[in-house]
Amino acid sequence: MNLNEQHGRSAPSGWSRTQELLALPTQTERLPFSVRVVRSEADLHKAVHVRHSAYARHVPAFAESLRLPESYDTMDGTVVLLAESKLDGTPLGTMRIQTNAFAPLPLEHSLTLPPRMRHSPLAEATRLGVGEPAQGRAVKTVLFKAFFLYCQQQGIDWMVITARTPIDRQYERLLFTDVDPALGYVPLAHVGNLPHRIMCLEVSGAEQHWAELQHPLFQFVFRTDHVDIDLGQPAARNGLKPQALAAALPRMQM
């Protein structure tokens, strides 16, 4: 039985596995948590709280600089994503997405991108953090999908990430590749000069590439409508005000 027959459809005989995957119908799936764009100071502080907590587990010294919102959080061309429990609103994860629509990417303060990317629409995912390990993997996967969907929405050519070892292996499994294999691990100013690997994924070819390699998350990313991911309408300019940076981070119960 082929994949389409499993979903109640018959595929033409002789189709390859790639063709079957690309022809799959879209399913709808609900999640136990939501992912949305931060649009208020209160939401930003929730994102900052889970961000700081996540970094404190792995890089405690650098995490001390993340107790408050950063100037990048309210810049145009930037959005902060927040994953929340649908049960009680507990913040479960966060990611900041920064495009080069108004300014170079943060990583470009530490290195020069190759010519094929230098003049293209880019988006860099930064400050990824998840809460409890029990849900961490699922939250991280959905945040990645939200990152991809946001890039599609904004007409981005390349998704760019920076990752420490061994986190970089997780991005390899998502089919990210080195921006320049010769770079290795580069100390980056916007992450405390810690050595990071610079990796990218081309948005336009991702669906075909994932299908060709029969990626285990293909259906999750490309053939599942997750209505709990809410990116709102396209908006290049950040709706948050810089005044959000001045507020003290409230104490929260996790």
Structural features, described:
By secondary structure, the protein is α/β, with parallel strands linked by helices. It has one domain: 3-Layer(aba) Sandwich (Aminopeptidase). It is 31% helix and 24% strand. It is built from nine helices and eleven strands. The strands form two sheets. Strands 2, 3, 4, 5, 6, 7, 8, 9 and 11 form a nine-stranded mixed sheet that branches. It has a two-stranded parallel ribbon with strand order 1-10. The radius of gyration is 19 Å and the shape is globular.
Give the helix/strand class: alpha/beta
The whole-number mean of residue pLDDT values reads 89
CATH uppermost class: Alpha Beta
β-sheet strand percentage: 15-25%
- Report the strand count: 11
CATH architecture: 3-Layer(aba) Sandwich
CATH topology: Aminopeptidase
How many DSSP H or I helices? 9
Radius of gyration, in angstroms, nearest whole number: 19 Å
Based on Cα principal axes, name the global outline: globular
Question: How many domains make up the 3D coordinates?
Answer: 1
Protein name: N-acyl amino acid synthase FeeM catalytic core domain-containing protein
Domain N-acyl amino acid synthase FeeM catalytic core: 47-177
Organism: Pseudorhodoferax soli
